[in-house]
């Protein structure tokens, strides 16, 4: 009579080496899940980043000929103020005072053209 136990697999026809390789592959795949699960497109981030006023300080001494592009942001849940962001010809972006008479006239013309 022998006290030695006979080692058998619960699945006939599988070797312990294949089971070990399968477990290693499964563990590698599961370690990649947290990295890929949290990825979101950068477009979604932009929606949530700009939920505050963009202009902290405003300028009123910029000549209109130096302005290349003008963006008017209406007051809303993100900010209680109307914001006017000007892209200058030298590449800088500055916030203009929306209450300055010169810029009020430009904003009125832009709004009439868009509507």
From TrEMBL:
The keyword Lyase does not apply. PROSITE patterns: SMALL_CYTOKINES_CXC. Pfam families: IL8 (PF00048). Residues 50-110 form the Chemokine interleukin-8-like domain. Belongs to the intercrine alpha (chemokine CxC) family. The chain crosses the membrane at residues 18-37. GO terms for cellular component: extracellular space. It comes from Neovison vison (American mink). GO terms for biological process: immune response; leukocyte migration involved in inflammatory response; neutrophil activation; neutrophil chemotaxis. This is C-X-C motif chemokine. Keywords: Chemotaxis, Cytokine, Disulfide bond, Membrane, Secreted, Transmembrane, Transmembrane helix. One of its GO terms (molecular function) is chemokine activity. The keyword Membrane applies. It is found in: Secreted. It comes from the Eukaryota.
């Amino acid at each position: 009579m022998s006290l030695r136990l006979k080692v058998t697999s619960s699945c006939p026809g599988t070797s312990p080496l294949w089971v070990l390789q399968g477990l290693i592959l499964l563990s590698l795949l599961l370690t990649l899940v947290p990295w890929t699960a949290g990825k979101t497109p950068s477009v979604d981030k932009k929606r949530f980043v700009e939920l505050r006023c963009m202009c902290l300080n405003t300028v009123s001494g910029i000549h209109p000929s130096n302005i290349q592009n003008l963006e008017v942001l209406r007051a809303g849940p993100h900010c209680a103020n109307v914001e006017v962001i000007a892209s200058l010809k030298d590449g800088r972006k500055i916030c203009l005072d929306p209450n300055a008479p010169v810029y009020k006239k430009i904003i009125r013309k832009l709004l009439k053209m868009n509507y």
